[in-house]
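Newbie here. two chains, one complex. Structure please?
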Amino acid sequence: MTVEPIVRTAVVGAGTMGNGIAEVLATAGKRVVLVDVSSSALERGMQAIRDRLRRRVQKQRMTAEEMKQALNRIESSGDLSAVAEAQLVIEAVVERLDVKKSLFAQLDEIADLEAILATNTSSLSVTAIASATKHPERVIGLHFFNPAPVMPLVEVVHGPLSEREVVDQAMAFVKEIGKDPVKVTDTPGFLVNRVARSFHSEAFRLVGDHVAEKQQVDRILRAAGFPMGPFELQDLIGIDINYAASCSVYEGYFHDPRFRPHPHQRQLVESGALGKKTGRGHYRYE
Amino acid sequence: MNDIVLIGDGPLAKETSDLFNERGWTVWPLDQLDQPLSSSCAVVDTVTGPVEEKKRLLRRAAELVPIDAPIWTNTLHVTATQVASWMPHSERVGGFSPLMIQQMPLVEVCRPLQAEDEDVWDKALQLWRHVGKQVEVVGDEPGLVFPRTWAMLVNEAAFALTEGVAKAAAIDLAMKKGTRIPMGPLEWADTIGVDQVVWILSGLVRELGEDRYRPAPLLRKMVYAGYTGRAAGRGFYRYNADGKRQSSEISKVSM
């Protein structure tokens, strides 16, 4: 596999995660090709990067020259074959196994044989995605957290088929781009999403059983040192996103009761109260 | 009120005792009290552990204080209603959480079914206001809000460790960087006590009967081994005599 340092990268999917990851790579000095088959999505993604970098310059967290250089490192392309030169390809398309598998089958053909293929999935099996390729040993998960330019953690997910050198190289790469890598085995929810389930689901239970009110739970857990209470946090994440994560871990563990979502969680999603983004979730927003 | 009869030993008792001492109260450890207190006073029980022992100590304390002295009992693993049922004059019993009681600006308390008299209850609550705590009255279930949430986080982290999802230090790092909590769940367990996690979870299993509260077998084994955390010198990590964490090493627990 590749032994030279990774400098040429590609990100497939120009949505929030994809353009965030592309920004992280470019500002860390890597060349990036951002690929999306939808030209409008690609333009929106590039615009989002430019807007964020401009704000960083305004806040004097970056010089205008640094911004220019970072932007010069990013190319955009509507054609998947643009990943051919990359030493590392990070996939950040929609969270659907069929879509990801078919994409990885194509990447396996197009990408350099020495390239690492990474998925940014937060909820699907890396092993299942890797199985769509002829070289599953070079497939890993690189789970960035949202928003990627801000959140320091990257879970480096290895399945039973991922080659050790590939995982080690990915760990070193994540460090090099200024993030904190954590090596995690391919299990439902990986590490953070799985362990954090208990924080969210127990909060729903405490309120559902009238042990405490939402504001009280948030107040008490803040007082105990959590930066945010679970309900405030869910409003920020999006109640639908958090509910999807709950369901995915629950399904992934074959309905282990520890991971069972709460009916109130689903009811909020059904009602359209999805948190800050809809102006209403557990709390109301102006 | 200016005298506290303190039940229990270990880190939770020490923290609770310090809280009252620092605010000018006289704290009488129950085992050092040989005659009844006649002044206005309260009993504060910090015991987790076998209920028979808790019951014996609480009944002993009740004999040494006036019949209207408030009795605050640690409800990490029992309900205040159950504790009140053991006591003469059960209406003066309240439940509280001693976890991080010094650092937290508030105290979580719960009201047993027997505490029906508003005046008695209000008077009992005064104790916490006297030591400057904001009072959060929550439902009478084991573990209240923070201890229960914390125990569930630690339990899941312990299951993840058992399954080899990541190593102990990686789990703590990931939770801190990925969710911005101030301490990783396993470090936190070592600080407060792995035994406390098991007591809370066991109490929830007993009272609520749900499999979701089942303690991870690793936690139980750590308690058997005496690896209860920082105070014991060994938990998920090793500590030197000053309680400082030693460089991580490979062990059955941290794998």
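Moderator note: Chain B has nine helices and seven strands. Chain B touches chain A through 46 residues (CB under 8 Å). Thread marked as resolved.
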